[in-house]
Amino acid sequence: MRRESKASPTESPLLFEVDPEPVEETLTVLGGIPLVVQAFRSLGLPASVREQVRVKERQRGYEEATLVESFVIWNAAGGECLDDFERLRQDPGLAEMVGHELPSPAAARQFLDAFHEDGKIEEAKQRRLPGQTAYIREEAPPLEGLGGVNRDLVRRFGERSPEQRTATVDQDATTIESRKQQALPTYEGSRGDQPMLAVWAETGLGLADPFRNGNVPAMMEPLEVAQRAFAALPKTVRGFYSRGDAACHESHLLKWLRDEKREGGPEGKIGFAISARMSEALHSAIEAVPESDWQPYGEPDGEEIRECAEVPFVPGEKSEKGVST
Description:
Layout: H1 33-42, H2 45-52, H3 64-76, H4 84-89, H5 92-98, H6 105-113, H7 118-126, H8 141-160, E1 166-173, E2 176-177, E3 184-185, E4 191-193, E5 196-200, E6 205-208, H9 222-232, E7 239-244, H10 251-258, E8 270-274, H11 280-287, E9 295-296, E10 307-308
Parallel strand pairs: 1-7, 7-8
Antiparallel strand pairs: 1-5, 2-4, 3-4, 5-6, 9-10
Helix pairs in contact: 1-3, 2-3, 2-8, 9-10
């Protein structure tokens, strides 16, 4: 008995009609950008920019709030260089949706240049110790103002999410490769910058992100970044924690975290977990741990097996009070 063959879907007509006439509406490939802009504006950030970021000397062209919003759009659209502003300007639907055209690459570069002050660099160089090459510059007033805008963003998030009462400050330095002539070599060998980032881990919000040259050691002055990060948290937070890699294993930061009456931070306990620097003494203590004490940690990742164990060791730091860890 012969079975009847099933009809192929390719034999059916399309479920829509093709209109050959050009569309009259304005089109865009960036339909999700208005959601980002709505979030930016609903948090009151344009007003915050207007109050705290002042870089213009003449009442011409774009004002600061529009320029900052344009960079938010540029970043959300995957911008990697200032020339990408020209690509965004060629999308007429984008300007129609957000209510303004985006700046040209030249205007965007001029805006960024206003955040730079050569005098701050020279002042930082003068503060270096003999034989020291790395330095951390102070921020120019416009950049400080932009940091204030970010703090307003975090505060308003706290007002809208009062149930989020725990904050873990995740502090880490990150390298960003750069082809600029002024970029300095990083510890990875490439040239670029190495900003120190502090993120509110439970929400993904940035709390502090001071710029640093590529040759600045990750362990250089982490306390100042931690203080800025904890100061940026909204008053709704009641539980405080901190975590960091070995770059945060620095005596001034550890002493500050332990001190419940700490200066420039919330009073009370801050729970913290910081990777210890691998010294000869720590390595010997790890080697002495019996094989039976090692337990699997997390799920196996391919061929990588991770294990953990309690290591009886007291880091040899000046601020250590002899408490076992």
